[in-house]
Amino acid sequence: MPDRPGPPPLRPDAAFGFAGGVYWFDGIFEGPAGDAADLREQIPRLAALGLATADVEIEAGRFSLLAADHRRPIEGDAGLELEELRDALEALLRSSPRPQDCESTIRLTEVGAGRARETLFAVHGGVVQRLSRERPLRPEDGRRALAQPPGGPRPEVSGRRRLLIGGALVVAALVFGWQAGLLDALLAPAAKELTVDPGDFAGLLELEIEAQPLAYGFVIRRGPAFPATPAEARSAREQAVDLISAKAITIAAEGDLVYVLIVDQEGRTIGGRGLSLRPLLEGEMAEVRGSLPARRGARELRLALDLGSGHKGM
Predict the structure, then answer these.
(1) How far is 219 from 155, CA to CA, in rounded Å?
(2) Contact 116/14 with Cβ under 8 angstroms?
(3) Distance (Å, rounded) from C-alpha 27 to C-alpha 167?
(4) Does position 169 have pLDDT exceeding 70, yes or no?
(5) pLDDT attached to residue 104
(6) Cα separations (Å) of 135 from 65, 70, 110, 141, 256?
(7) Straight-line distance from the first to the last Cα atom of the chain, in angstroms, rounded to the nearest whole number
(8) Which structural domains are found in the chain, ordered by start?
(9) Read out DSSP for the chain?
(10) Backbone phi, then psi, for 99, in 5-degree steps?
(11) Measuring CA to CA, which residue among 83, 114, 90 is closest to residue 104?
């Protein structure tokens, strides 16, 4: 069965025509504050790039910078200099005494001819990483693009108001996956790079990986030793070499829960979920489909009796 179409994948670089388009920022950059003068030295550079229009706010040993959210015209077909923006944020990050504790939900949206490019500037491992994706235009893009004149003034807000806005943006970023979960998926190996292991269900079940955007899709089907009748299940249990094998036979025969695990290079479980095998009882061609969020360090998808077992299949 062909893969279902999904949104374009995010990747470190993307390019298409932007001439005559507009761009805007949203999000917040915050972290432990060091020398206030060092922090404020970065603001003119960020302002020149359209990312900041106000001074950085420092309170209770932490700094926060709310992105300028008004729209500006794009001058040139290539769009903004993404690496220049990343370098400017990297300089801001380095002004903090603990860059590894800084957080960013800064996002740039560029709207061009029939397309949009979104770029996330996230802090990961103590450095600023940028990840972009192209996508079709949405109705909200048009509303945002027409909201105010390009380069128009941004209303001044109090420190408390800015903090509330920043908190709302962080919550929104979490909801829409722009935080660690999405970054984790963006940096994960592709589905085609993973191996599969039936684990505890060797011979009973077959596992196949399917590519999905930012996820590992999978299909579970009957294996050659799947017990199709109670008599076959009873006979298989009597011949089982150990209790684990007997339990796996029972789970398959009765359509109980099976667990699909994501395993890393060291054999550790870094993700997983349980699914009912009951659909497999409907016939030889039946399937169970599901997906797991892609994870950095993933090496294998494995079937198991529970989330904590994941015995390596022979």
Answers:
(1) 52
(2) no
(3) 9
(4) no
(5) 87
(6) 27, 21, 11, 11, 40
(7) 29
(8) 22-186 (no CATH), 191-304 (2.60.40)
(9) -PPPP-PPPPBS------TT-EEEEE-EEEEE---HHHHHHTHHHHHHTTS-SSPPEEETTEEEEEPP-S-EE--STT-S-HHHHHHHHHHHHHTSS-GGG-EE-EEEEEE-SSEEEEEEEEEETTEEEEEEEEEE--HHHHHHHTSS-TT-------HHHHHHHHHHHHHHHHHTT-SHHHHHHHTSPPGGG-EEE-GGGTTTEEEEEEEETTEEEEEEEE-TT---SHHHHHHHHHT-SSHHHHHHHHHHHHT-EEEEEEEETTS-EEEEEEEE-GGGGG-TT-EEEEEEE--TTEEEEEEESSTT--PPP-
(10) -60, -30
(11) 90
Q: Is residue 201 a contact partner of residue 220, using CB atoms and an 8 Å limit?
A: no
Q: What is the pLDDT of residues 61-117, one digit of tens each?
A: 899 888 876 778 877 555 567 888 889 999 999 999 999 888 888 888 888 767 788
Sign of CA dihedral 280, 284, 290, 291: positive
* Nearest residue to 178 (alpha-carbon basis) of 246, 141, 131, 211: 131
72-73 and 22-26 strand pairing: antiparallel
Position 146, amino acid: L
- For residues 203 and 197, what is the distance between their CA atoms, to the nearest angstrom? 11
pLDDT higher than 80, residue 39: yes
Strand-strand pairing, 298-304 and 106-111: unpaired
Q: What is the pLDDT of residues 119-146, one digit of tens each?
A: 888 888 788 988 888 878 777 777 666 6
The number of residues making up the chain comes to 314
- pLDDT for residue 133: 81
Residue 125 corresponds to which tokens in the numbers above? 């491992």
Count of beta carbons in the 10 Å neighbourhood of residue 194: 20
Q: What is the pTM of this model?
A: 0.46
Average pLDDT, the chain: 78
Widest pairwise Cα distance in the chain: 79
Q: Which tops the pLDDT comparison, 196 or 22? A: 196
